[in-house]
Amino acid sequence: MKIKKILTLFVFTLVAFISASTDIQAQTVEAKIEVKNISVDATSEMVDTGIVVMPGDTVKISAQGNTQHGAKVNWTYEGDTSKGDANGNFAFKKANQFALVGWIGDRKNYFQVSKTDTYPQNINGNLYLAINDWSKHYDNNVGGLTVNVTVTRYYEIKAEGTDAKAAWGNGLVKVDKGDTLSVFADGKVAYWEGGDLRDADGKDGKMASLLAPQINQSALIGKVGDGNPFKVGKAYKQENFDQNGWLYLSVNDEITKTGAFTNNSGNLKINVYVNRPSKTFKNPIK
Ligand SMILES: [Ca+2]
Ligand SMILES: [Ca+2]
Fold first, then answer.
1. How far is residue 118 from each of residues 111, 174, 279, measured CA to CA in Å?
2. In the chain, at which end, N or C, are there fewer CB atoms within 10 A of the end residue's CB?
3. Residue 103 Cα, ligand 1 centroid: separation in angstroms?
4. How far is the CA of 55 from the centre of ligand 2 (A)?
5. pTM of the full structure
6. What are the structural domains of the chain?
7. What is the whole-number distance in angstroms between the Cα of residue 86 and the centre of ligand 1?
8. Which ligand minimizes its atom distance to the CA of 136?
9. Closest residue by Cα to residue 34 from 62, 8, 1
10. What is the tens place of the pLDDT at every residue in 245-256?
């Protein structure tokens, strides 16, 4: 009872703090980045999910499908839970045999997906996945898992001076050729503290000084790698993506005007969905 009270107070204080800071400090973003249909082939010793996990992120992983390792016995992402840690010759000794494991950046910080609620915090790195088997004995494996990863992140869109790179911020997710990318944005953007709040579709009017001069002002904009910026607005969808690269999102403010990217306010809630195309596993289960 007491703990619940303290927790409620803590959450309330946190919410109050977040809403106070969104009103006065900067353009804040709550982004949910979901990558669906990641193929973890049982023969792969390492699969890069195309997501960089940042300190403070919340990570959720779910998996479907089966794998076989020698015998015609199907294992889910939980692996063989009837035994303890795999040990012996297994690639990931402190995880169940044939279980899905993941790691952020350094492989030595691996975790078993089905046994992990809280992922390593304060680590910055690519999220990798693999299925636990004997090291260097992956070729004979059959089947694979289809994995969804969701990362929730709070950050600010902010840049000092005329730093366009900072205005675009960190890459949110790696988009590959053939992916379907959808982005939905709720919330408001203001060009300065206390300025008019506009939705992610922005306001009419283009200016040479904008981060994306060909797109209307204060709109939510995106780019993939070094590609041309495109308007995201409140809703964006592109099927069968035609380029590879990191997805960046920003608001279309005047980057050639020093200070323009430090004084914004408002709060955007952005949902990014990357749907990978279905793949056939190297050795399908017969
Ligand atoms: Ca094997
Ligand atoms: Ca501004």
1. 10, 23, 29
2. N
3. 20
4. 27
5. 0.88
6. 38-147 (2.60.120.430), 156-275 (2.60.120.430)
7. 13
8. 1
9. 62
10. 999 999 999 999
